[in-house]
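cron nightly-structures :: item 1 of 1
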Amino acid sequence: MSAQNDTPVETLSFEAARDELVRVVSELEQGAPTLEQSLALWERGEALAARCEEWLLGAKRRLDAARATASEEDES
């Protein structure tokens, strides 16, 4: 990885994780110089993808809760 980010994945915002994931995918597509670097990129990419999914699932839960609350208020 040319500029490996050592920031813990669990501390990244959705946008930061997504942007870094885009960079990781780009580097993987270009081909890392060594197998070890490719594996490190792959592992970081997997962790970043999981972080993005975590954020998206959390956002979906919040939207579902807001819709349920709005629906209950409409019925009252």
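cron nightly-structures :: done
The chain has one domain: 10-75.
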